[in-house]
Amino acid sequence: MTGPRLVSILRQGSYLIASIHTALDDTQMTAFQHDLVERIGRDRARGVVIDVAALDVLDSFASWTLRTIGEVARLRGAVTVVVGIQPEVAFAMVTLGMDTGSVHTALDLEEGLEFLDRVVGPRRPAAAARGGSA
Amino acid sequence: MPRVEAAEWVGEPPVRDTDAVAALIPMVRRIVAARVADVTAAEDLVQETLARVLAASGRVEPGMLEPYAIATARNVVATAWREEDRQRRNQHRVVDLTAPDLPEGGLLAEEERSAVAAALARLSERDRQALLAHEVSGRDTRSLASELGSTAGAVAAQLHRARARLRVEYLLARDRTEPPTERCRPVLFALSSGDRRRQREVDAGRHLLECDVCAALSQPLLERAPQRDDEVRIPIGGDADVVAARQAARELAGRLGCFSPTDLTLLATAVSEVTRNIVKFAGSGEVVVEVLDEPRRGVQVTARDAGPGIPDVERALQDGYSTYAGLGLGLPGARRLMDEFAIASEVGRGTTVTMTRWCGNR
């Protein structure tokens, strides 16, 4: 892919922080889903934060994709939290009739990480390594 | 004797001059050729030099003809260089902007003429007369009106319609096509005249999706229409166009200044849903976003495709009815996001979704 990156997936200890930088079409959204699920296994992530603050629209397909990521990640042993849903986007999602299902949400990245620290619970070695490297 | 001598002397000089000048030719040639590469140009300069020397030979002292010829040759060459230089500097001013006539040019012009003639022949007698009187004979609308017992405005409107019709007939004659359906001519005429109400009445957008002939013919007609800043037309052919359509809708609606960020997001989301339906079910189509002033200010979105159509529109509008992974919220969701929502679908012909959001709601 050329040009500026559409998404980035960064590792932070036992967490993955995935940021969507621009509006994605369905193909790109699906590619993002595959990349992220693959990284969860490779990096043995226990928590995933998806930052969607840059998205102008979360329509049915995008919401469905986030929900799928959450479910698949759960089956792979990771907790997913979506952060940064803009107020007007949230309003549109409710009007549209979408929700993010079992995927957790938080206001922003900071809250999302705090949430993960709470639910992923007592740090396992991988989490301790994160504390050490930070 | 002296008289005879005098007579001989008088008759001699011209002969001697010509011979003397002729004898200079090889030398002049050499001088010029050393300075001017082009053979024809050099020969011209040689001739000019000789002409000058010959004209001056009576004035030149005997024996001085050769140096005089040398000086003249140099001057002539220098003048030629100056002239050439001046022309080169000014060449851009005299550049010939008309393209050279191509061999096929005449043939094409002939085809153009015959297409125009054929198109004119297909107009009604009345339209043809009016058009020719105005465009060819240069009669103004007022004098035509008084002759026809009409008003200048009515004549102008008639001319406008006649021109629109002529454009359509010209395109048909040029391509030697006969429109495949009854609807083609009215649609093309509506596009040619730029009459948006008429275009809606004949459902021009849908026809262009369905009829390849008209889609091709309509291009020049649409191109000559002035660019509108209160309407965007987005051809839909793939995933990326879903994003393009919703962004175009948001942008156009945002310019009106009467929508809140939430309104714009609701609109963009609805456009995203209906556009996705085009991509998923029909493969291609178009989305038109336009500003409405009547009955109120707002934005209308029309999403058309020539796809398979929806067999049961009522069911498609129920939550959860879906044939693909999108949780079935596309159409019912879009309906909730907009103020007005209408869907017309015919199996085998395609679907048109028309939805509107008014300014200053909620």
UniProtKB/TrEMBL annotation, chain A:
The STAS domain, residue ranges: 5-116
Pfam families for this protein: STAS (PF01740)
PROSITE patterns: STAS
CDD domains for the chain: STAS_RsbR_RsbS_like (cd07041)
PANTHER family, per the entry: RSBT ANTAGONIST PROTEIN RSBS, RSBT ANTAGONIST PROTEIN RSBS-RELATED
The protein's name in its UniProt record: RsbT antagonist protein RsbS
Species in which this protein is naturally found: Geodermatophilus tzadiensis
Automatic annotation (TrEMBL), chain B:
Residue ranges of every copy of the Histidine kinase/HSP90-like ATPase domain listed in the record: 262-361
CDD domains tied to this protein: HATPase_RsbT-like (cd16934)
InterPro entries registered for this protein in UniProt: HATPase_C_sf, HATPase_dom, RNA_pol_sigma-70-like, RNA_pol_sigma-70_dom, RNA_pol_sigma70_r2, RNA_pol_sigma70_r4_t2, RNA_pol_sigma_r2, RNA_pol_sigma_r3/r4-like
Similarity-based family: Belongs to the sigma-70 factor family. ECF subfamily.
Gene Ontology biological process: DNA-templated transcription initiation
GO molecular function: DNA binding; kinase activity; sigma factor activity
Protein name (Swiss-Prot/TrEMBL): Serine/threonine-protein kinase RsbT
Transmembrane helix found in the keyword field: no
Species annotation: Geodermatophilus tzadiensis
Keywords: DNA-binding, Kinase, Sigma factor, Transcription, Transcription regulation, Transferase
